[in-house]
Write a structure and sequence with these properties.
chloroplast; rod-shaped; plastid; 27 residues
Length: 27
C-alpha cells in the first residue's frame, strides 16, 4: 500500500532529521 510506505517514510524522517530539528525548536 502506498499509504503504508508514506507512513514508514514519514516515521523514518521524524526519527532522524525532523526529530532533531523539532526537538531543538521546542527547546
Amino acid at each position: 500500500m502506498l499509504f503504508k510506505k508514506i507512513s514508514k517514510f514519514v516515521g523514518w524522517l521524524s526519527g532522524s532529521s525532523v526529530g532533531s530539528i523539532t526537538s531543538k525548536t521546542h527547546e
